[in-house]
Amino acid sequence: MKATLLLENNSLFGTRYLAEHGFSLYIEDEQTRILYDTGYSYPFIKNAVKMGIDLTQLDYVIISHAHRDHSGGVKYLIKYYQENAVMHRPTMLVTGEDIFFRRRFINEENRECGFDTDRDVLERYFKLEFEPNVRWLTPNLAYLGKIPRLNDFEGRVPQTPKILVDGEWRDDYVYDDTQLAYRHKNGREVSVFSGCSHAGICNIMEYAKKVTGTESVHTFLGGLHLQQPPEEVIAGTVEYVKNAHVKQFYACHDTDMPSKIRLIAVSNFIEAGVSTKVELV
Question: For residue 249, how many C-alpha atoms fall within 13 Å in the half-sphere facing its CB?
Answer without folding.
Answer: 26
